[in-house]
Specification:
By secondary structure, this protein is α/β, with parallel strands linked by helices. The protein contains 11 helices and 10 strands.
Length: 266
């Protein structure tokens, strides 16, 4: 299994490796609305809500959408990585959100009381877990009756033109996150816990014009970041060939979406 979804301690001790992958999306996405603003527009948040962000990473989401949010909100930033929590706190406490606190936490054993939050957000993190169902059950436990869970993930065909290049390293030509926890798994596990689940996919694609950015993104996690010089040379050749076929551009369709569910009132 690709270590982008399993080697959490190495991949997410801080945001450096994540940033190499994030650059592809921040620089080359083609969409009517950017990913973070699109997600924020779907969230049913209200002024005064207590919100838990599980797998918060470096807090980029909140910094990007602060002007779209009802305020104040009471935000709790949680991540398995203390380094990520520290970075997220530094970023988010400077925003005019309301109260912001952080805690290192395992999503499958949340250190919060029952019915503590009006909303729980889990963005692109459930595919990292050995037991996503246990984490979804924990998220349901800490939600107040009527509270909302928002989960984002990729599907297996996401960015297929990019992931096809990683076969040089012996990887499968699919998005490893989508293969581990794609749309079908997200809907099935959330429906088992909540009953009704809604879904929306962001209409978006990548149009990448820099071979170097593709190389840096796809060698930011194993097996690419542990490849031999010969493998890396073959990888560069594969990237150059793909750009040549596209007349200097590499295009890839996104399959990236948001699932929403509400906890029953009682």
């Amino acid at each position: 299994m690709t270590a982008i979804i399993t080697d959490n301690a190495e991949q997410y001790s801080d945001s450096r490796k994540l940033a190499a992958r994030g650059r592809l999306h921040s620089q080359y996405s083609i969409s009517e609305t950017g990913w973070f603003p699109w997600v924020a527009g779907q969230l049913p948040l209200r002024s005064g809500d207590h919100v838990l962000d599980i797998g918060c990473g470096p807090g980029w989401f909140w910094a990007s959408v602060v002007d779209q949010l009802p305020r104040p909100i009471n935000l709790t930033l949680a991540d398995l990585s203390p380094g990520m929590v520290e970075e997220a706190l530094g970023r988010c406490q400077a925003l005019s959100l309301g109260s912001v606190r952080g805690e290192a936490a395992d999503a499958a054993a949340l250190p919060f009381a029952d019915e503590s939050f009006d909303a729980v957000i889990a963005m692109h993190m459930l595919y990292h877990l050995p037991d996503p169902a246990a984490a979804i059950a924990e998220m349901a436990r800490v939600l107040k009756p009527g509270g909302c869970l928002a989960v984002t993930t990729n599907d297996i065909g996401n960015l297929q033109a990019l992931y096809a290049l990683t076969t040089v390293f012996g990887s499968d030509p699919v998005d490893p996150a989508g293969a581990s926890f794609g749309y079908a798994a997200a809907e099935r596990l959330m429906r088992a816990q909540f009953g009704t689940v809604s879904f929306a996919q962001q209409p978006a694609r990548l149009r990448v014009t820099s071979p170097d950015d593709v190389f840096l993104a796809l060698t930011s996690y194993p097996p690419g970041d542990r490849a031999t010089e010969a493998e890396l040379a073959r990888f560069r050749d594969a990237i150059e060939a793909a750009f040549a076929r596209g007349n200097g551009v590499l295009e890839a369709e996104k399959q990236i979406g948001l699932f929403l569910a509400r906890k029953a009132q009682g």
